[in-house]
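User: Quick sanity check before I run a bigger batch. Here is a single chain. Can you write out its predicted 3D structure?
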Amino acid sequence: MSTNDERPAAPADDPDDVVARSQGQVSDVMGDIAEFWGFTRTMGRIFGLLYMSPEPLDQSTVRTRLSISAGSASTTMTALLEWGVLHREGRLYVAETNFFKLITAVLRQREAARVQQGIGAAQQVVAQLRAADQDDERVRFALQRAEHMLGFFEMGGSFLEAFVERSPIRAILNGLARTASRLRPAPLPGRLTAASDPHDLDADDEHDAACVPDTYDRIDA
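Assistant: Done. Predicted structure follows.
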């Protein structure tokens, strides 16, 4: 028997099959990611399919490829258009390919609104406690905790706004490090105050606070 048997090469996969398979895989991945971040799985699947599509697709094709209902396809694709995730070309749809643009659009339209809601709620709590009897230790404690929470929310809002507007990241981080070093929660009544507790500010915090220049005291988003 010859040791140089030549076996026929396996036929190459059909290009259409390869592309369709990759579209399905990316669609599933995007569906998982979307679901993880609190969006519907269908949103991620539609984006993944269109992102991997070599040509624009109409709604009927998207519906058929993903086996979703007409109502689901229509509602979801309308929402994705509003978010800037999809774009229309007549009756056809294409996906946005700038991932930074996608992320900032989501942050601007959804996360920023939630942060502002949190800030507004915290401000109401602080105002309510400031109007209460400050001679009561429990009121003072609650006020200090509420102010600490508000400071954290406002710091997060500043970072989010600066990130979305693409402000210089070094200035953002330095400003946040300095602000964070000042945010100390009120201790439980009867315990050491934050200022007098020698363990409250650890070596890393002291180093961070000392290394941040005063010019970053204020964050200009």
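The first helix runs from residue 15 to 36.

User: Great, the batch can go ahead then.
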